[in-house]
Amino acid sequence: MDIGIDKDVCIGAGQCALTAPDVFTQDDDGYSTLQAGREDGGGSPLVREAARACPVGAITVSERVG
């Protein structure tokens, strides 16, 4: 799967990191980012739930084609 984080929309609420800490973290400024090596979600079943938990909809999840 492909995970996108819109840095212009993210407010740093941290709900994604709380929901799927193996995939999401927060950078030094408090904004969401992906854990190193987790650009594809690492097979975590919580990625979609983390995207839904974002209060501003900054996270998108789509299936990788091919």
Automatic annotation (TrEMBL):
Keywords: 3Fe-4S, Electron transport, Iron, Iron-sulfur, Metal-binding, Transport. The keyword Iron applies. The keyword ATP-binding does not apply. Residues 1-29 form the 4Fe-4S ferredoxin-type domain. InterPro entries: 3Fe4S_ferredoxin, 4Fe4S_Fe-S-bd, Fe-S_cluster_ET. Coiled coil: none annotated. SUPFAM superfamilies: 4Fe-4S ferredoxins (SSF54862). Its cofactor is [3Fe-4S] cluster. Ferredoxins are iron-sulfur proteins that transfer electrons in a wide variety of metabolic reactions. PANTHER family: FERREDOXIN. This is Ferredoxin. The lineage of its organism: Bacteria, Bacillati, Actinomycetota, Actinomycetes, Kitasatosporales.
